[in-house]
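Exercise 7.
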Amino acid sequence: MVVHEQAVRSDVAELFRDIFEYDGPLSLHTSPDDVPRWDSLQHIALVHAVEKTFGLSLSMDEMMELVDVGTIERLLHRRGA
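Solution. The predicted structure, written as tokens, is:
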């Protein structure tokens, strides 16, 4: 399970580099407060990238749930990604 979690964190880190041009450290608590380019428009780009990368279709509630790295990872785990 730890290897899978590390792979998901690596994929999430890559999304953050691509979408937000963010190369800083990621923790479960990394949020828009920590990532300067994470605004409402870039949030939509993040949602799209998560859907495309992990083969998911997120509901509106799930899209709004993505408020930090921890919630992204929990959503992916819950959805079996």
